[in-house]
Specification:
Layout (H helix, E strand, L loop, with lengths): L1 H16 L2 H5 L2 H15 L9 E5 L7 H5 L4 E6 L2 H11 L2 E4 L6 H5 L4 E7 L8 H6 L5 E9 L11 E3 L12 E3 L3 H12 L1 E5 L24 E7 L8 E2 L8
Parallel strand pairs: 1-2, 1-4, 2-3, 4-5
Antiparallel strand pairs: 5-9, 6-7, 8-9, 8-10
């Protein structure tokens, strides 16, 4: 208990001393972004010149990845102060969007070629409603999220988060669905779903899922690729993997 309280106190002290942008610019976050985007870039997906919508864009750490590929990017986030940073840096189109309470806005959006959703699903309390609102909104979806361990409980496993921290859940409630739940839900919505044969080169992305995880003291993540059309790439598996490359 003392260790947990100490971590919370340290997190709070860092938060009150730093601006919203500074909280995203820590070494931990940037190394994490590098690992995720390097991994996405290695999958052989057609990413050049696409129309992209970002959900939970934060300060645009992933926006530039697509801009460098000559994509047209539309960024959304629940916090306008974060989107202002994106507009200031890149001048791209943005929209304030709370994916928990404003699903009607998603339904009214135009169609995009790519839906990018890295680091958001576990920060919301309604993962199923959000994912189902995306039906018909994109040809492909790239999803990265924290998950629970592989077990039979199909619930979304709600967790508390600090809503005053701009890197955490806007509502203060997040979720940790299982890989199986995400895989099956995406398949219902898009028709085809895959997991990469590899994981990003980062400790939060385990390669061996045959063993249990200490979910109280560790964060585990996985990546999913959903598509309306069948993808035939050697980097992707159409089944959940127990061992990644």
């Amino acid at each position: 208990m003392k260790k947990i309280l100490k971590k919370i106190l340290i997190r709070f002290q860092v938060f009150i001393k730093k601006s919203p942008e500074d909280l995203f610019l820590t070494k931990h976050y940037q190394l994490h972004n590098i690992a995720r985007l390097k991994h996405l870039d290695s999958l052989g997906l057609d990413l050049y010149g696409k129309s992209v919508i970002e959900f939970g864009a934060g300060i645009g750490d992933h926006t530039i990845f697509y801009l460098l590929k000559n994509c047209k990017v539309f960024s959304t986030d629940a916090r306008p102060e974060l989107l202002n940073i994106i507009k200031k840096k890149y001048g791209t189109e943005t929209m304030v969007l709370n994916v928990e309470s404003e699903l009607h806005k998603i339904i009214s959006l135009p169609r995009f070629e790519i839906i990018h959703c890295y680091g958001l699903l576990y920060h919301i309390s309604n993962p199923e409603a959000f994912l189902r609102s995306l039906k018909g909104k994109g040809s492909m979806m790239f999803l990265e999220t924290c998950v629970s361990g592989d077990y039979n409980d199909e619930s979304s496993r709600l967790v508390k988060e600090n809503k005053n921290d701009p890197t955490q859940a806007f509502s203060g409630i997040g979720s940790r669905p299982s890989r199986e739940w995400i895989f099956n839900t995406l398949k219902e919505i898009f028709g085809y779903v895959y997991v990469p044969n590899s994981q990003p080169d980062h400790p939060e992305f385990p390669k061996d899922w045959t063993k249990g995880f200490d979910l109280q003291n560790s964060v585990i993540r996985a990546v999913f690729i959903a598509s309306e059309n069948k993808l035939d790439l050697p980097t992707l598996s159409d089944k959940l993997l127990k061992i990644y490359n």
